[in-house]
Design a protein that fits this description.
Blueprint lengths: L2 H33 L10 H10 L1 H26 L2 H7 L4 H42 L3 E5 L2 E6 L2 E8 L5 E9 L5 E12 L5 E12 L2 E12 L5 H7 L8 H13 L5 H29 L7 H27 L5 H29 L1
Antiparallel strand pairs: 1-2, 2-3, 3-4, 4-5, 5-6, 6-7
């Protein structure tokens, strides 16, 4: 890496980290205020809201990274333009493509860091946030692990070890105890179907009942079990696709297709994850014309405003397109990536016009 790349990279990275800290703090505050509406339900209090907000912060970092990179690029290139450093570099033969390339080079390790956060940090953090929130809102005692959970209620313990590709509980153990603490019944089921009335249709059930000092073992192909886990509780216990590691989500979608099943919403979530690094690169390209074009002398405050409006507009467009895609037959990859590709194309077009204007001027 030469001195130009290093200089632009270090300057932009510093601004990016400051922008991400500010954006994450701002949106975390907004989420904390929203969580305060739950205070008073069960044992949920302000401390629980604060913990939940802190655990969900890594997910906000992922969503805000493209906007943070846009602001960093605008401010870094804008500062260089106002100080005439860009003009000096171009007079020495440093092209606009070379300067933009320095930002792209910086984006690559940032994208890799975002992938690590999405793969290893966000799922665990979301799990902890959901477990903490569920424990305060729901009166039954629950212990969760990724992909499964334990629940205790009225001398009964339920252990779901994992959820299938259709989100149905699998590898289920149910323990029943007498008031004196002795076990009276044990059931193991391969899977279960949750009925609309809240009962579970257990499949391939192995049951052991205590009679005296012995276990009596029976097997039944199907058993109705009146579950104490409410449908709302089940929703809390199941991690949504947006909190799954990208690699695991890809495998999950592949397995669905292999079984002739398809979940459009899960595919949209996956391709939305893929669009984040592409959006980051596209917004870098969009920022460049503001430094090389006729608006390069604008103030830092105006650049922040422009960046914020562009970022908010892009995020709103992305969410609207995803909502449309969930209700249409258009390929999820095309739906999720279309705003990013269009934005990148528009940025290249405007940058080319700014380059031609500079050469003709």
């Amino acid at each position: 890496m030469n001195i130009v790349d290093r200089y632009i990279g270090v300057l932009t990275l510093r601004i990016f980290l400051l922008a991400m800290a500010g954006l994450t703090a701002l949106f975390s505050l907004l989420d904390f205020v929203q969580q305060l509406s739950l205070v008073g339900q069960g044992s949920y209090d302000a401390r629980d809201a604060l913990i939940y907000t802190a655990f969900t912060a890594p997910a906000r970092v992922l969503q805000l990274a493209p906007v943070g990179m846009l602001l960093a690029s605008l401010l870094a290139l804008g500062g260089l333009a106002r100080n005439a450093e860009l003009t000096a570099w171009r007079s020495l033969g440093v092209s606009e493509a070379r300067i933009i390339g320095a930002l792209v080079k910086l984006s690559l390790p940032i994208i890799f860091a975002l992938f690590l956060i999405a793969q290893y940090v966000v799922p665990t953090a979301q799990q902890l946030a959901q477990r903490q929130q569920e424990a305060a809102l729901v009166e039954t005692a629950t212990t969760m692990h990724y992909g499964g959970f334990w629940v205790a209620h009225d001398q009964q313990y339920l252990n779901v070890q994992q959820f299938g590709y259709d989100r149905a509980p699998q590898d289920i153990d149910i323990y029943s105890f007498a008031p004196d603490g002795s076990m009276t019944d044990y059931k193991h089921a391969d899977s279960a179907t949750v009925n609309p009335d809240g009962s579970w249709q257990l499949q391939n059930v192995l049951e052991k009942r205590v009679q005296g000092t012995q276990f009596v073992t029976t097997w039944q192909p199907s058993v109705i079990w009146q579950s104490f886990v409410t449908p709302r509780h089940m929703q809390l216990l199941q991690l949504p696709a947006s909190t799954m590691p990208p690699v695991e989500l890809f495998r999950y979608i592949h397995e669905q297709k292999r079984n002739d099943q398809r979940a459009i919403s899960d595919e949209l979530v996956f391709w939305n994850m893929v669009s984040i690094p592409l959006s980051l690169l596209a917004l870098v390209i969009v920022a460049a014309p503001f430094a090389f074009g006729a608006q390069r002398m604008q103030s830092a405050g105006r650049q922040v405003l422009v960046g914020a409006l562009l970022g908010i507009g892009f995020e709103l467009t992305q969410q609207l397109v995803l909502t449309f895609g969930a209700r249409s037959s258009v390929a999820p990859a095309l739906v999720a990536l279309a705003p990013t590709l269009l934005l990148g194309g528009a940025g290249i077009y405007v940058l080319q016009r700014a380059h031609n204007a500079l050469r003709s001027g």
